[in-house]
Amino acid sequence: MDDLSVAEAAQILGVSARRVRALVECGQLPGRQVAGRWLLPARAVEHRQDIPHQGGRPLSQASAWNMLAVLSGAEDSLNDLPAPARSRARRRARDLRRPDEMAGKWPYVLANRARSGRFYGHPSVLEDLLGDPRVVRSGISAAIDYNVALVVAGSAEGYVRSSDAEDLTSDYSLNPRVGPAQANVLLHLVDNEQAARWLFDCRVAPAAVVAADLAEREAPRDRAAGLNLAATL
Q: Do residues 10 and 19 make contact, with C-beta atoms less than 8 angstroms apart?
């Protein structure tokens, strides 16, 4: 079977159909609409099933960015938070660095940090897109910056503020109406711009953010590269 319905995917993953639709909408699972119903690649659902999850829910977007700030050496961005929130972010960051926690938590607890949108962009615009000051280069497009041996030609990945997303997609004529095989641009849209404000001071995402991006990818090689990068933090 090549494709699964939302109900079938939910049964395999042991979650609700609503949760499956949310995973598709935020880019954590690929899917396409046919005659008004979502179809998900069976291989992608099986891959997600193979990711070892720990108990509990993914962190909220604010909590995820607070933890990533600690992991990225940007703790100054937490100064306005109450002391218990800062302590919680530091504790969670320590837990995430534990070797026995990495495989289970890196692809999971940070999943809510952004909504992911897949697009097709003409190859001639990809370099300019990654150089745009509204985009923080990350994931597969930043792997080389951290000596990660992954090279994917003709693609682009980065973070953008949600408030910039519409203008950015228009400026570069990015087409969202494409399937996973045609998409060559992956944009992570950040809704909580205050929590992630430190990220947008960067041109290239810190190693912790790149590790989170790669650890969530479908390809086992990419996922392993993300976890290996996480282990260096």
A: yes
